[in-house]
Write a structure and sequence with these properties.
One of its GO terms (biological process) is proline transport. It catalyses: L-proline(in) + Na(+)(in) = L-proline(out) + Na(+)(out). Keywords: Amino-acid transport, Cell inner membrane, Cell membrane, Ion transport, Membrane, Sodium, Sodium transport, Symport, Transmembrane, Transmembrane helix, Transport. GO terms for molecular function: L-proline transmembrane transporter activity; proline:sodium symporter activity; sodium ion binding. The protein is mostly helical. It has a single domain (about 15-115, about 130-400), classed as Up-down Bundle (Sodium/glucose cotransporter), CATH 1.20.1730.10. About 75% of the residues lie in helices and about 0% in strands. It contains 17 helices and two strands. It has helices spanning about 5-25, 30-35, 45-70, 75-100, 110-115, 120-155, 165-215, 220-230, 240-250, 260-265, 275-305, 315-325, 325-365, 370-390, 400-425, 430-450, 465-480; strands at about 455, 460. A two-stranded antiparallel sheet has the order 1-2. A hairpin with a 2-residue loop joins β1 (about 455) and β2. α4 (about 75-100) packs across α10 (about 260-265).
């Protein structure tokens, strides 16, 4: 590792830990502060925190890698995500911010659902907590896989821990840094680091594609080179079936059910701040996704033109950072990738820990635990989930995009219809909520286990979020009509109407 890279990464690590210490001094005195930052996030911090915790290493590794291999047809995933994120800010954000506070200041999604549907409170808290922990273990594992690949590709001669490989050492180092500031500073530390990390990520995704295009000989030369290798590489529609199109765009459905994203809506300063946060968040997302698309497409041209062998397409960002920049800038770019990885891991660890703390420990073991005890138990569960995620991501052959897609679908199908209807439909019942939660999660798990995401009935695979979302929606609607209730909805306040 060169001196310049070491300096950049060291400064980045010091900054993250400093933010953790600041947040520890400011906002960890009780559960609301540790888990939601006291509901005092500014629009900019809430927006970039939601975006950075959303995109993860997938933005700089998974998506560019898919585009590098398959061309512009993979950009439909990004388009679907933009559409889904926009409607998430419109439909869910203002209602969730208002209703979680009105329903006895709910601190977690399971707690909100239990208070929204008191007739099935225990079932909702228990089942939703299980779903959150299971899928977040997989999701967090994907982030650690990205961290392992970063260290394995960029620093193959890294000093190893014992007999561990560079990949496994990278997993431990990534997890260690995240744990430091998450354990110390809680939600505020995670949100503030997300804000800084989001800025670093966007800057890297603006700089990298521009330099790659320049080094590849310009847009015209790059286009000619790519078309000479694959005439359909720049087509958004070649080989795209109807099923393939909907499977790609359907990624956007996942936004409505991602606990680590929508929890930011609960923490924003006020309902009135939501539109400003939405505008900031959408601008950040569009710029960052456009940069990731450009990186994958023009990175292919550069690699072909310079006869570079890429063993793993998901490492294209790392390879180009090492090839094209001086060490100090390379260190900054690698810090951007670490930022993408760490921002999501920290958010997921905290949400999973919050659910285990509030919806398991307090509910079943220590109903009258003190606030200080709850904060310390929350820190303990952060560590537990991190260890489980590291075990899941320990295999160096794991794929970031594959793990992310499974967890994304699980959350989107289990919680998406449930969150949308609980916030907008007064006729929804507690039994319907439980039915939708279980039906969505099980459909995704069964779909994945049968391999129908790769091939369905002899044809192309169908992304599991589509059947999961549909089944959950129907289950909620049918069961709610069969079990009507009149006491499970508190009218909106005049301000929220």
């Amino acid at each position: 590792m060169s001196f310049g890279v070491t300096v950049s990464l060291t400064l980045y690590f010091v900054l993250m830990i400093a933010i953790g210490i600041y947040a520890w001094r400011k906002s960890t005195s009780n559960s609301e502060e540790y888990m939601l930052g006291g509901r005092q996030l500014s629009p900019a911090v809430a927006a970039l925190s939601a975006g950075a915790s959303d995109m993860s290493g997938w933005l700089l590794m998974g998506l560019p890698g898919a585009l590098f291999v398959s061309g512009l047809t993979q950009s439909w995933i990004g388009i679907g995500l933009v559409i889904g994120a926009f409607f998430n800010w419109i439909i869910v954000a203002p209602r969730l911010r208002e209703q979680t506070e009105r329903y006895d200041n709910s601190l977690t999604i399971p707690e909100f659902l239990s208070k929204r549907f008191p007739s099935k409170a225990m079932a909702l808290r228990s089942v939703s907590a299980i779903v959150i922990v299971v899928f977040f273990a997989v999701y967090t594992g994907s982030g650690l896989v990205a961290g392992g690949k970063l260290f394995d590709t960029a620093f193959p001669d890294l000093i190893h821990i014992g007999s561990l490989s560079a990949y496994q050492t990278g997993i431990i180092l990534t997890m260690g840094i995240v744990l430091v500031y998450t354990l110390i500073g809680g939600f505020l530390a995670v949100s503030l680091t997300d804000f800084v990390q989001g800025c670093i990520m966007m800057l890297a995704l603006v700089i990298m594609p521009l330099v790659v295009v320049y080094k590849a000989g310009g847009v015209g030369v790059s286009e000619a080179r790519m078309l000479s290798v694959d005439p359909n590489f720049l087509s958004m529609f070649h080989g795209l079936t109807v099923v393939g199109f909907f499977s790609a765009v359907a990624w956007g459905l996942g936004y409505f059910g991602q606990p680590h994203i929508i929890v930011r809506f609960m923490a924003v300063r006020s309902v009135e701040d939501v539109p400003k946060a939405r505008n900031i968040g959408m601008a950040w997302m569009i710029i960052s996704l456009a940069g990731a698309v450009g990186l994958g497409i023009f990175g292919r041209s550069y690699v072909v033109g310079n006869n570079i062998d890429i063993a793993d397409p998901e490492t294209i960002f790392i390879v180009l950072a090492n090839q094209l920049f001086v060490p100090l800038v390379t260190g900054f770019l690698l810090a951007a990738l670490l930022a993408a990885i760490m921002s999501t891991i920290s958010s997921q660890l905290l949400v999973a820990s919050s659910s285990l703390t509030e919806d398991f420990y307090r509910l079943f073991l220590r109903r009258h635990a003190s606030e200080r005890e709850m904060v310390n138990i929350g820190r303990f569960f952060v560590l537990v989930v991190a260890i489980v995620a590291a075990i899941i991501g320990w295999d160096p052959d794991s794929k970031v995009l594959g793990l992310v897609s499974n967890a994304w679908a699980g959350f989107g199908a289990a919680f998406g219809p449930l969150i949308i209807l609980s916030l907008t439909w007064r006729g929804m019942s507690g039994a319907g909520a439980v039915a939708g939660l279980v039906a969505g999660a099980l459909t995704v798990i069964i779909w994945i286990s049968l391999g129908w995401g790769s091939s369905f009935l002899g044809g192309p695979g169908v992304y599991e979020i589509i059947p999961g979302f549909i089944v959950a929606f129907i289950a909620i609607w049918v069961v709610s009509l069969m079990t009507p209730t009149k006491d499970e909805f508190r009218p909106l306040s005049p301000a929220a109407e």
